[in-house]
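ugh ok so i messed up the first submission bc i forgot one of the chains. this is the corrected input, ALL of the components this time, i swear. 304 residues overall. if the numbers dont match what u have on ur side tell me asap before i send this to the collaborators (the ones from the other lab, u know who)
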Amino acid sequence: MKDVKALDEARTRSSSLKVYINGRLVPSEEATISVFDSGLNFADGVFEGVRVYAGSVFRLDQHVKRLYESANAFEINIGMSPTEFTAVVLDWLRVNEIRDNFHLRPIVTRGNRIPPRLDPRFCSDQPNVILLGGPISPADMRGQRLVVSSVRQINSDALDPKIKSLNYGNNLLARLEAVRRGADDALMLDADGFLAEASAANLFIVKEGQVVTPWSKACLEGITRRTVMELAAAQGFRVVERDITVTEVLNADEVFLTGTGTEITPVIEVEGRRIGHGTAGRATQTLYSAFVEMARSEGTAIYS
Ligand code: PMP
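and heres the new structure output, hopefully the right one now
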């Protein structure tokens, strides 16, 4: 978000919300956690990004499932069942009177680690469970300009990207490089030099009626990615998961990114090279319309 006024409004709205911390609802200026927190000290925690459309939470069950699977991979006990967690999320959204265009950020860390050493046995038994959020705007269909980052995405043999952990060091380095080079975002390669994903979104290319996305070797299994694959198949596209090279991206008819925050965002330029016609392509626009229609008509109702 580069619009200063929109950024200011988002800041004001975010900081006017009550924050959930370990069962308490507190004004944002009082919403603090310990300096011993495991997330702060070792990125020892997991998180989600969830979106509210038209009074409902899109794919809430899938986000909760991924949060619990990520926590399980890190051996973090969230201390409540997924059903209880879902109820906490819906309650929090009601308390804050959230209805639309909202991005919810659940965070769970292993808890306070005193003294702050790596051995998890220094941790308290209680995780820190936090719910934050803020307004979010619809995807910018004018499209994004990307670079190909010199920073690789971590392969699943090192830190499985399917675990949505707080370790975003390489994603951050890629985004910093993008900003430094005047781009909107960066594509990251996997260890073998094929495309993995963008810094916080999945990648798709469209070529001769096929919709292609990197197989999930080195990318997050995005919930939007799965939804878009289903929508594309329903519209008659052949959907393929496979390795993609930078050359294929440059020669694609269309390129787009997907994510909860990103929705479906066209890519109009990569490394200064125009993609397709340099505007959102037909398939991207059709998929975006179908996606928004689905997101605004399905989901877990906040108010019943
Ligand atoms: N990749 C990364 C690295 C991300 O952070 C995100 C955002 N959660 C995505 C992909 C897109 O995933 P989703 O569609 O589940 O939001």
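quick check: DSSP finds eight helices and 17 strands in the chain. that seems consistent at least. The CA atoms of residues 84 and 291 lie 28 Å apart.
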